[in-house]
Amino acid sequence: MVTLTSNSPSINFSSNPIITDSNGTFTTVLNVTPRTISTLVTITALTSVNGELISTSVTTTVSCPSLEAVNAAQNIAEMRAAIEDPQLGLDLTAYNNLTDAQKNQVANTVLMNRPPSGYPTVASVQIALNNAIDSIVDPNNVFVRAGSVGGNGSRANPFGTIQEGITAVNIGGTVHILEGTYPITTQINVNKSDITLLGENDPLLLLEADLIPILITASGVTIDDLTITSDIPYAKEFIQVGANNVSLLNNTIYGPSQVLPMSNWVVNRAWFHK
Fold it and tell me: Running DSSP on this structure, what letter comes out for residue 229?
């Protein structure tokens, strides 16, 4: 009987210990943990013959082919095949929502940004993949972050104002309004049909001028998950609806605190339909 050991936790043996044949010959299968990069390991075989312990060791290089395929890819098709291999274990949720052309773009970015020595871990591939996805400019999904300058509408490089997002998004698309405080000093005109303004990570729209901050003039618009308030009371509605089939969902809309008596309060309406 032979017992096998290794200095690496990345490998194990299908049979261990192993019963040899009459000539002392044995076979086993060496299993390499998925997502293991090329690693030098030492394997030791230990047995007892007539009460005497005998051992021998061999050093070899092992790797998981799935990560090696990422580092060996020479073109977009090969990189896509490597990325999409389930054995690699990447989170492909966002990737799978891309168009075929966008997947090619992402694969090319991962290929072009590959370090000279290759991606060292699957985690590093995941980061590269996520960054590539976030850099895509998609007119159906436009991103906005308060204070961003010189953006192109991608998640990685968003526009700085909501109006820029509305101008850039396709009819039927979504403007993703990311975290931050958006000072509103000019009116936002939602004038594109069937688009959604979707808040992500609790954005705050803060009215800082005596005007209606959001005017909806196109049909089929959805305003979802925004918080809207003002710095001082204004006798204005926060959202004015001048179109049909408009949905206001999951929004928090409120005015600033006002001192008593209530008869002196300025009325802030959440929304008004013309």
Answer: E
SS (H, E, C) 163-228: HHHHHHCCCCCEEEECCCEEEECCCEEECCCCCEEEECCCCEEEECCCCCCEEECCCCCEEECCEE
| Contact predicate 234/265, CB 8 Å | no
Q: Are residues 179 and 199 in the same domain?
A: yes
| pLDDT band (50, 70, 90) for residue 50 | confident
Domain boundary among 134, 152, 169: 134
Q: Which of 31, 62, 93 is the last residue of a domain?
A: 62
* 266 and 163 within one domain: yes
What single DSSP character describes residue 261? Answer: P
| CA atoms of 182 and 202, how far apart (whole Å) | 11
- From the list 206, 266, 268, 262, the residue with the least C-alpha distance to 231 is 206
pLDDT digits (tens, 9 = 90+) for 105-125: 999 999 999 999 999 888 899
> What is the reported pTM?
0.70
**Domains of the chain: total:** 3
Q: What's the rounded mean pLDDT across residues 220-227?
A: 97
Confidence of residue 19 (pLDDT cuts 50, 70, 90): confident
- pLDDT over 90 (residue 257): no
DSSP SS3 for 132: helix
Structural domain boundaries, residue 89: 65-134
For residue 185, what are its two tokens? 């000093």
Measured torsion, CA atoms of residues 145, 133, 34, 114, in degrees rounded to the nearest 10: -110
